């Protein structure tokens, strides 16, 4: 397999306060030096709680945000600082599906108008040709021609999310970033959307970054999994490896907090004390130190753990786990 | 188990310009003392409306059309505003989904609790503050300084704890928790749910847990009622309903939640019917794989399936006694 996307020591620090005249002194370290690779045709699932920086990672990959440090390689090319031409090319190759289909579709445009534009702008197609393409596109996401002339408010949440997926795949991208695509949907619809995603991915050979806080969804669709905590990747590996053998104390606690739908399964719950701490001006220490049950003073609170290989391409960032 | 709350044939509607939205259709359920009942269903199925009807706070243009809500044998539907307020003061506690929207942003946490205590328990200021700090400790906020904080100074989990403390001010017999953890992360969800379960036992409260999360029902509820389009379609002991669901909707819902692997994704085809133009027969008929002639003509009643399990589905005919 070949690598499609590779990021190295990616960093995004947002300044807080400050003004034109006064430089801000503190930063929110939303993403703080993380590295991973996504192979072609693979789904990389990123999980973590709110504020862990998972959406920021996706936005950096799509060049919606400019990283403060680090490198991004797409298909072997360094796109950390893309030229205008590179950027235009990237826009057709990388796409995004947002969390909330109620706000990500233009309420004043019909579905046809929304989906027609990519073909007209990027492929210079005539309206007629573009419309033909849109009808075919709607079918691939399980909608029909009758939906084309409707406005978003006339569709249900699941149907809207299908339109959002259709828009993302319209130009045949290589890479799609899905940011919590099922979080605003009901469970019976969630499975429909996941199924469409899986089908399309196999048909089109899409590479995807799938970001969600829903651990069950990640377990279901991801090939590789990354667990984030306060801007750091704390554990990463193949789906089977991470889910059957979570090693980082945070991953263990996170997985154990998910209530099982089988009433006979009584998971031993590893309760985390307190809440996620702030990502502002963090000192060199393990981010999870304050809530960790294994933490050792004098080590975990002064030295930041690096990701290390524990075999089977399974990486963890923890001093205490052997 | 002795019954605390019994809802009988409750009908409630919202009157909109488009027409009458039939939010609840002959909803019947009961909660025993110290029991935790999970009320599950998808968006718009009426689960929150049930909670609002019980506390008598269904917002206009909504109203209860018919039915009875018996709490300790007293019918709450017949009570006027003043009497209802008395019931809420002494018997009911409420926790809503979004803690930031439920707390007053310009009052300190302690003062909000004091206010509730002074009204509910007719206490003096100083005594109320002492109790407020005790209550906060009970929900896991042991630092008394938090009482002097404003809601925006607290994190989401802390706010939800404060809100639970507030619901406890009247020593309620029934705590209605409407999606108490939906706006929280999973690790916090676990903390809050453990807290609710523990409080339920310690304070001898019954809990009505309104949620869309089957996992929470499975782990924290004694019994479960499944709602679909304003109807209770299945009710029974949690274990029996989750292990052997009898209503096709419950079966579909559980299969959809299970997310076995990416090649075995189950979902329910179609969408929920319009609550304004409800179909004549079973509300699930248009999406059901077992649909029969009778399903589009007659509304099914809840019938006994086994042990504590009841379902409203024509598949089970009149096998049991209608309840």
How would you summarize what this structure contains?
Chain A is α/β, with parallel strands linked by helices. Chain A has helices at about 55-60, 85-95, 110-125, 125-140, 155-170, 185-205, 215-220, 240-245, 250-255; strands at about 5-15, 25-40, 45, 70-75, 75-80, 95, 175-180, 205-210, 225-230, 230-240, 310, 315. Chain A has an eight-stranded mixed β-sheet, sandwiched between helices. Chain A has a four-stranded antiparallel β-sheet with strand order 2-1-4-5.
Question: Can you tell me the overall shape of chain A?
Answer: globular
Low-confidence stretches of chain B: none
Mean pLDDT of chain B: 90
For the terminal residues of chain A, how far apart are their CA atoms? 30 Å
CATH topology of the largest domain in chain B: Rossmann fold
Structural write-up:
Chain A is α/β, with parallel strands linked by helices and 322 residues long. Chain A has helices spanning 54-61, 84-93, 111-123, 127-140, 157-169, 187-204, 215-221, 239-244, 249-256; strands at residues 3-16, 26-39, 43-47, 69-74, 77-78, 94-97, 175-179, 207-212, 224-229, 232-238, 308-309, 315-316. Chain A has a single domain, classed as Rossmann fold. Chain A has 9 helices and 12 strands. Chain B has 2 domains: 3-91 and 172-316, Rossmann fold (3-Layer(aba) Sandwich), CATH 3.40.50; 99-171, no CATH class. Chain B has an 8-stranded mixed β-sheet, with helices on both faces. In chain B, strand 9 (223-228) and strand 10 form a beta hairpin. The model of chain B has no long low-confidence stretch (mean pLDDT 90). Chain A binds chain B through residues 49-50, 156, 158, 186-192, 194-195, 198, 213, 215-217, 219-221, 253-254, 256-264, 266, 269, 271-272, 275-276, and chain B through 42-43, 155-158, 185-191, 193-194, 212-216, 218-220, 238-239, 242-243, 252-254, 256-263, 265-268, 271.
